[in-house]
Amino acid sequence: MRYAMAGRSVDDARGRAARSIPLWRMLPGLLRDPLGQLVAVADSAEGEIVRLNLGTIRPYLVTEPAHVQHVLRDNEANYTRGGNSMLWRPVRRLTGEGILSDGPQWQASRARMQPHFTAKRIDSLVDTMSRAVSDAVDEFDEPARTGRWFDAGTELGRVICRAISSVFFADRVSLADQLRIVAAQGTIVTALRARLLLPFVPDAVPVPGDRALSRAIGVVDDIMLPLVRAEMADPRDGDDLLAALARARDEQGRPLDERQVRDDVVASFATATETTYAVLTWLWPILDAHPEIAERLYAELDEVVGTDRTISREQLRALTYTRAVVEELLRMYPAGWLLPRTALADDVIGGTRIKAGSIVVVSSYITQRLARFWDRPDVFDPERFRGDQSRRGHRYAYFPFGGGPHQCLGMYLFNLEAPLVVATMLSRYRFRLREPGMPPKQLAAALRPGRPVIMALSPVRERRPA
Ligand code: HEM
Question: CA 191, CA 207: separation in Å to the nearest integer?
């Protein structure tokens, strides 16, 4: 579908006004398939920035890769996540004012946390993580033997927590408590939807989901605050994030505030679990709908992993198709799909005037489905990420992890963890879904499937005698 754009004035020196698309023209599509509708708007704009006239808010939609680069990297100082960005405010109730904010507080958090997530540090974790994933996947032996149905999201949450807990808290948080945090996050993400959809409503005005939100934040605090207090009172040597932040000092050499430690551990653990969980839950319906891709994946796993229980660094490197499947999943279902910013000062992007104080929306989902940059954008095809093809195109035609100074801190962690989970599970089991077909997309903080994915496993082959 194409969109006629409303007229606009041209003023070359200060850029021209963005074309504006009124709500009534988008509404039927937005109600049916909001993301599909936004991709259609962006396709029709043919590289220009458009302004969505949603009544009280009128965000600029920035989708062209060069313009995305301008906002996230080249002129990033002008595009803040903090301050008056209404879309970010609700998320802060969980994540506080550290790594997910902006300005000096963000900078200090980023500098403290960065060393924990570098490529080198994550690479040193391959063996530990591979064993942790293997142990977690062992627990599927029982449902695989009996053919019992289970909720993929819940079980993936368990596997993910076991894979990454050594990075975040060593053994200080029990698996049960980690799962309570993950469940609370699920409640928070859902409860925040009303706030995200009604960004102009002040916090003091109740909206549906507020009570559930407060209760869930209470669950997270009840687990994390006593733990942070105990760590700070008696610091350990560990290199997990909790131990390191509990020992950290600010620029004046003072210990951090316990709230700062809590905020940064919770924010990064929440981001890590929520995103990974969302992406890996999409895997099953996708493979179910593409049996030929599933077969290629199985063939690679059979050849590279065979009956090994843990995956080595060399095997991981050889799993090129598995990694391409994960990259393509991140193209079509990028968990961090919406990156809202607020323009601090007037700017001109690609000849279009951006007014100070307005909301600018960048979305990996939309750009990664633009027909001008992606051949058959709605087709799941891991071949795009094989060989040299992945190097084609603009850096910001594919940015599931964002870019610029706020680029995802967990990129290397995810790129290690996700192929490990996929390869460990699918080298041992085949799966079937109770309900075939792609689930609808739930537009929460992360792009989750809009209904539970219920599946069952069966062993690929008998276990080798020990
Ligand atoms: C599927 C996996 C993931 C995706 C798609 C994803 C995506 C993103 C994106 C798009 C951003 C940029 C946000 C912005 O510019 O406003 C981001 C930031 C961030 N991500 Fe991830 N992420 C993933 C996994 C993880 C993991 C495993 C961690 C674990 C530490 C993590 C921690 C963070 C943090 C702390 C930030 C904020 C960084 C900053 O502002 O300095 N993410 N992520």
Answer: 9
Which domains, and CATH codes, for the chain? 19-459 (1.10.630.10)
Whether pLDDT at 11 is above 60:
no
Neighbour count for residue 9 (Cβ, 10 Å): 7
Averaged confidence pLDDT in the chain: 89
Ligand 1 pocket member 99 (CB < 6 A): yes
Cβ-count burial 259-282 (b if 16+ within 10 Å, e if not): ebbbbbbbbbbbbbbbbbbbbbbb
Q: What is the pLDDT of residue 87?
A: 54
Average the pLDDT over each of 5-9, 88-92, 344-348, 404-408 and give the range with the smallest value.
Answer: 5-9
Q: Could you give the CA distance from residue 34 to residue 330 in angstroms, rounded to a whole number?
A: 19
Atom of ligand 1 nearest to the CA of 341: 16
- Three state DSSP letters for the chain: CCCCCCCCCCCCCCCECCEEEEHHHHHHHHHHCHHHHHHHHHHHHCCCCEEEECCCCCCEEECCHHHHHHHHHHCHHHEECCCCCCCCHHHHHHHCCCCCCCHHHHHHHHHHHHHHHCHHHHHCCHHHHHHHHHHHHHCCHHHHHHCCCEEHHHHHHHHHHHHHHHHHCCCCCCHHHHHHHHHHHHHHHHHHHHHHHCCCCCCCCCCCCHHHHHHHHHHHHHHHHHHHHHHHHCCCCCCCHHHHHHHCECCCCCECCHHHHHHHHHHHHHHHHHHHHHHHHHHHHHHHHCHHHHHHHHHHHHHHCCCCCCCCHHHHHHCHHHHHHHHHHHHHCCCCCCEEEEECCCEEECCEEECCCCEEEECHHHHCCCCCCCCCCCCCCHHHHCHHHHHCCCHHHCCCCCCHHHCCCCHHHHHHHHHHHHHHHHHHEEEEECCCCCCCEEECCCEEECCCCEEEEEECCCCCCC
Q: How confident is the model at residue 13 (pLDDT cuts 50, 70, 90)?
A: low
Ligand 1 neighbourhood includes 121 CB (under 6 angstroms): no
Residue to mutate (ligand 1; options 271, 282, 421; most atoms within 8 A of CB)? 271
CA of 441 to the centre of ligand 1 (A): 20
Residue with tokens 């996700």: 418
Ligand 1 and 419: CB distance under 6 A? no
Q: 408 a known binding residue?
A: yes
